[in-house]
Amino acid sequence: xxxxxxxxxxxxxxxxxxxxxxxxxxxxxxxxxxxxxxxxxxxxxxxxxxxxxxxxxxxxxxxxxxxxxxxxxxxxxxxxxxxxxxxxxxxxxxxxxxxxxxxxxxxxxxxxxxxxxxxxxxxxxxxxxxxxxxxxxxxxxxxxxxxxxxxxxxxxxxxxxxxxxxxxxxxxxxxxxxxxxxxxxxxxxxxxxxxxxxxxxxxxxxxxxxxxxxxxxxxxxxxxxxxxxxxxxxxxxxxxxxxxxxxxxxxxxxxxxxxxxxxxxxxxxxxxxxxxxxxxxxxxxxxxxxxxxxxxxxxxxxxxxxxxxxxxxxxxxxxxxxxxxxxxxxxxxxxxxxxxxxxxxxxxxxxxxxxxxxxxxxxxxxx
Length: 367
Prior knowledge:
Elements: E1 2-7, H1 16-19, H2 23-27, H3 29-34, E2 37-42, H4 47-50, E3 54-58, E4 64-65, E5 68-69, H5 71-80, E6 84-88, E7 106-109, E8 111-113, H6 128-137, E9 158-160, H7 177-188, E10 212-216, H8 225-239, E11 246-248, H9 254-262, E12 264-268, H10 278-285, E13 289-293, E14 298-300, E15 312-314, H11 321-330, H12 332-348, H13 352-366
Parallel strand pairs: 1-2, 1-3, 3-6, 6-7, 7-9, 10-11, 10-12, 12-13, 13-15
Antiparallel strand pairs: 4-5, 8-14
């Protein structure tokens, strides 16, 4: 039996470990064992952590030094067990940690730019879209974002993983905070992997004419001007659409957010710290089509960003935003198609398609 140690830190104290990004390891645990893999999650690096055949490191909980990964710490681990696999959990396809590449066997990330040559140079603001806004609108970031560019000799180590689309979202509509911790205890202490409180698919078209035309709820305050700029532009464009029945620029708890989301025709999103955002997956589960910035340059999986098949996009400069939004609001047939296709993609994540991708990906990573 080959052992996989996964360093997750404090994520083990939350339901997200079981419902979120790592949930495949629980959902397909039986299949992994059949194939000869035993998975062990660790909060801290212990002696037992080193004893596995493969060490998966969650970048979120690894120490940093002067804005970069603490390479000295990584070297210490490698001296004991060199089978290191780096899971870059940063939000954007552009924000990378390529300084670890000489010391790990594979570099797994939730999304990449399709054009890998973008990694051979510094992008202003660290992302393709921040680079666009900084250059077009002369935005200033303080301090300036810097990261290590890709050395071509390590490009074969780059491995596309999976994004948060594999997650189960907790059903805040039907379950309380008490239920949340009950579910956590069932997973953590009693090993009951039933996922019974997950948010299921919702579809309702009967009263479509009574719904909000669109919903757009998001934070617009970011430490970096270039990161929050797209959301500010979005807010400005929404303020011009006075004839539409819009819900935006308000704060709601999760339960009310899901209620209003289900009662909306379109969910409008924008990039934040990264491109792929959990709100679009929540919209899909809620039976709502979504309008989102153009994702044609992003490689990610599951891919819910297929133009006019799973979503409708708008350009970074918003020159087609109003037209595409109005078309999506008025075209219920298109919205039905987008929701149906997107929900099917997410449902497939815990069926044979998701299992095949996951198992093949594990073998690809450790090969």
